[in-house]
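Our consortium's second objective concerns turning raw sequence data into structural hypotheses that experimental partners can test. To show how far this objective has progressed, the report includes one record in full. It was chosen at random from the queue rather than selected for favorable results. The single chain below, 132 residues long, was entered without modification.
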Amino acid sequence: MNFKYSICHPNKSNIEYKNDLISLEEVLKIAKNYPWLEQLKIKGEEYNPSLDFTNIQNNQSFCLTAHLNNDNSLEFSLWYNRPKRVKILLGLFGEKEKMVVDDIWSFSLEDSIKYLEHFVEGRYLDLEELYK
């Protein structure tokens, strides 16, 4: 599988889009080596640092966003964009599939990387368990 990604920098209003195709190994290397704490400490912080990875074959994406918790420790929210069955008009007209973004909060870097691994390896059912 191939991926592309984008970066939300804390001190820039525009998202940086990296459209070169990268492998799953590169995705994991980028996320593990990103200077999360340094980015969170930038003066004038407007946005939280984020890395958003998109699978170019199916257009699903997975985003890690860094935060400092109440103890000033690094933690992450995870944002997963994928097709999901949704009810139309409270289910009166059945269901249809559409792209939906769900988020979940308060993960360590290690756990966030583990779920990112599930995403890049295509183990979507393991991710779905998080968002139930």
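The partners drew two points from this record. The longest helix spans residues 109-120. The chain has a mean pLDDT of 91. Both points have been shared with the crystallography group to help prioritize constructs.
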